[in-house]
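Extended Data, panel c. Modelled sequence:
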Amino acid sequence: MMNINFDYSFAAPHALALCRPSASEKYLLNIEPSKIQLLYSFDSLKDSPLLSWSTPEIDLETELTIREDGQEYLLQEWKRHESGAPWLIARGQSKVICRLDAVATRIGVVVKLNFENTDAEHHDITVKCRSLRGWVISNQGWIDYKHNNLLLTLNKTRADRIIGYFLGADDYPMFRNGIAQVSVPMSDAVAKDQGNSMKYTTALFSMKPGETKSGFLVLPFEKYFEDFDELCQVDYDKEMKDALDEWCELLDRGTKISICDKEVISCFRACLADLFVMREPHAGGYVIGNGTRHYRSPASGEPLTSTLQLDRMGYLEEASGDLQIYYAGQNEDGCWAYSKGWEHDMWSIHYMKCNSALQHYYITRDRDFLEDVYCRMKRAALFARASRQSTQNDPVKSHRGMMQRGMGDCGMMDNGDYYGFFYPQDIMAAAADKLTLKAAQILGYEEDVKWLTEYCEETARDLITSLRENSIKEEGYEWIPSVPGSLATSLYGCLYAYHPAGLLDAEDPLIRGTIQHVSTKSISEGGLPVGTGWMPEGIWVAMALDNFSSVYLRMGNRDLASSFLYPVLNHASPLVTWCEERGKEKGSAEKSGDLQHLWTPLSVVAYMLDAMLYEDDEAIHICAGIPRHWLAEGKSISVSDLCTRCGKTSFTVENRENKLYYDIQFEYEPDRPVYLYFRTPDRDEPVMLESFKGTIK
């Protein structure tokens, strides 16, 4: 599967959030053939409690539909702008061809409607914008006989706030004066079902044979009736161009990757854009974010990993501005899984915070930053040590030396309980303690190094003993469950003992057995691991790259690591968005979570960067995770301004007549002895490079 066609996409509706970069004002579009749903909240995250799961309520729910000569008109194709910007392009093909473009501008979401009558007869196209919330009327023309193209809110906020308006149509017809009865809905449900209150506006395009016409639907973020005359004079084509330019300038500012597959790069840029789509201001000047609807909240988790990728791609100012709000969530006892936030008792959060801090230090070499955050890292490690000591005499032997009962999430249940003892969460907490030890070593805190070393060694012994005693035995192998001795739970994080924790090596029977179990019993028809979340027979697409490819890459299994990239992209919607979890079959209607979820685009960005270059304490690995055909004869790869421990790094590799010509440039020399490895398309083992420029035969 080496081309991108989205052939394993889930069923419509597909979602795309439209906004300016890192903005509070967001419209969420849910698209299907017969309609586009547009959702908007007047609220933002600026007043949300720190790191909470507190989602703004939807205040405006609008529906856009098209008819040709009174008959339902279907959109047969929708996609994202090839630049990766959050710009919707939708098309319909009937007697009249339709192209619809939508993007968020400084004014609001602008939808441009283009029609071409390819038939020999006249046809009428009507576009209806209907408010599915509110009461009785929102079409101002029903009142003043003039503004038939304008919808006002009338309730929930200032009554004269504009929902939306059409411009450029031939007419804006509406039923009135007894021609059609207007009912008085007594609930939103009635309004949605009956839809015959005057809560809509209709644009009519009267199309002669061969004629082309265009118009606009505008849904402003915050404009009022008094602004309407001025809004009618705006050049909306220019507004749309300016919006696209703003996104492209942002995306072009980060690390640049060039490969032979332009569709992969377009998807990569779309995923990078979504990291900014799901960021927005929080109180105190911070920027934070986690999702598009149900997960649109200031919680941590994925956003911390998102910040790490922004760091790597050179968005240092954005990353620095994000980090402090996550670090501030810490209890008095040192617990970094903040009890007042959604992350409470989720021990993997300790790792996410420690990892983002250490990586930010590696990239910026900001010692003052590391010293400041180390105080929090140390307090978290002390809390974790006390927590593990509290279970040393637990009556259940498998729990001894583990963290106290905590949250599982990710489909993990401890004997049916959402709270309990979970290996992935516990192992990630152990990995956090090892990062704290590294920070202490960097800073030269010898006393802390001593006790942290002893503590990490003790933790490793306890966890390894527990893993071996409570593995699941299959015929010929054994594997690591997420709960000691339990079969009936998610496979999430089953390889964390190898990476990132480093408790077991790649050849350990438990690691090899876990890989065997996943690869023989839990791979879908579309080529992705099954059962890594809440759906026992479903797919959490992000986990293919996040949980598995990242591990296989560091094992040196390049082909297995890269084998998930194209299937992950082909499980996206054509808008390059993914729901959180979905059924494993093509076109699955079984979906959960946000229809546009953060973790999968984040995993794509992280894997693409790792595939090009990843570092460990001993080596720099170049092109370790790329599919082999990216460097086939005549192909080339270039990466510029990827932030590493050696500063901004750029390299080019070109295959000419089956010789690889490479040129690797670091901003400054490594501050430690380091090996430089390169993987060639024709070999399984990497080549160790002795220079930064040369040829590999």
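The longest strand covers residues 108-117. This feature is highlighted in the accompanying rendering.
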